[in-house]
Amino acid sequence: MKTKNINITKTVFIAVLMWFFFYNAFYALGQFIGNLTK
């Protein structure tokens, strides 16, 4: 049970990290394209 809980926690942690990374990457990309088209 303990190892399963740790794996779930690690998976959720990695998923949140990936979400933050992609969210910020796409946001920065959108800002960059927005500045180019001005």
Key traits:
single chain; 38 residues; 1 helix; 95% helix; rod-shaped; cell division; Cell division protein FtsX; cell cycle
- Can you tell me the overall shape? rod-shaped
Note the main sheet: none
Give the terminus-to-terminus CA distance.
55 Å
Q: Please work out how many helical segments DSSP would assign.
A: 1
Q: What proportion of the residues form beta strands (DSSP E)? A: under 5%
Number of domains: 1
Q: What is the radius of gyration computed over CA atoms, rounded to a whole number of angstroms?
A: 16 Å
Helix-strand category: mainly alpha
Total number of beta strands: 0
Low-confidence runs of at least 5 consecutive residues: none
Helix content: over 70%
Order of helices and strands: H
**How confident is the prediction overall: mean pLDDT?**
91
Protein name: Cell division protein FtsX
Organism: Capnocytophaga sputigena
GO biological process, one term: cell division
Keywords: Cell cycle, Cell division
Short description:
It comes from Capnocytophaga sputigena. Keywords: Cell cycle, Cell division. The protein is 95% helix and 0% strand.
Please characterize this protein's 3D structure.
- The chain is an all-alpha fold and 38 residues long.
- It has one domain (1-33).
- It is 95% helix and 0% strand.
- The protein has one helix and no strands.
- The N and C termini lie far apart (55 Å).
- The mean pLDDT is 91.
- One of its GO terms (biological process) is cell division.
